[in-house]
Amino acid sequence: MLDIARRNDPRGCVTWVHADARTLALSDGFDLALMTGHVFQIFVDDADIAAVLATARRHATAFAFDTRNPLARGWERWQGWVRTVPGATVRYEVRAIAGDIVHLVTRHELDGGVVATESALRFLAADDVIARVRAAGFATVAAYGDWDGSPFADASPEIIIVAQ
Fold first, then answer.
1. Percent of the chain surpassing pLDDT 70
2. Residues facing 104 on adjacent strands
């Protein structure tokens, strides 16, 4: 799902739109669409990726998003990862790796109860991501290694895409 803040009048009022990023159809467009938090990785199916990118292209002149660099193999650091704060603990468990898809379980332990969620994240190579963005109709695509604008390299933790 996608939440969009739309400023739709001169006073700066905002209307929130809760929609599916694959099928969103608005009558107006944007100068920039921004997708953060590695959301791109939850789209594990090729058709879903193409639909999300097509939606971004229909609605925005420019599109920027982040995805984790598979060459950094971040999921290896998640295995057994535990973060504890007062009243809560979060644990990650990598269950399986199938090609470029990592299956994991996140456990949130709150006040004695446990909420476990299963998820899958797709780790596409930078060249593959760029090719898909271009196929969606963005003519100019730049890749950076992090949000600080550093150049993308094999050791970069992120792939930051900025497309126009």
1. 90
2. 94, 119
Q: Give me the DSSP letters along 71-104.
A: GG-THHHHTT-EEEETTEEEEEEEEEEETTEEEE
Show the tokens assigned to 26: 């608005």
Going from the C-alpha of 18 to that of each of 1, 11, 23, 25, the distances in angstroms are: 7, 22, 12, 12
Name the superfamily (CATH) of residues 2-69+123-163.
Vaccinia Virus protein VP39 (3.40.50.150)
Domain locations in the chain as residue ranges = 2-69+123-163, 75-121
**Alpha helices for the chain (secondary structure H):** 46-59, 75-78, 126-135
Run of H or E including 120: strand 113-122
**Which pLDDT belongs to residue 127?**
97
pLDDT of residue 79: 82
Checking if the pLDDT of 14 tops 90, the result is no
* pLDDT tens for each residue of 136-156: 999 999 999 999 999 999 999
Question: For the chain, how many residues are written?
Answer: 164
Q: How far apart are CA 130 and CA 123, in angstroms?
A: 13
Q: Which two tokens stand for residue 91?
A: 């644990």
110: number of CA atoms within 13 Å, CB side?
Answer: 5
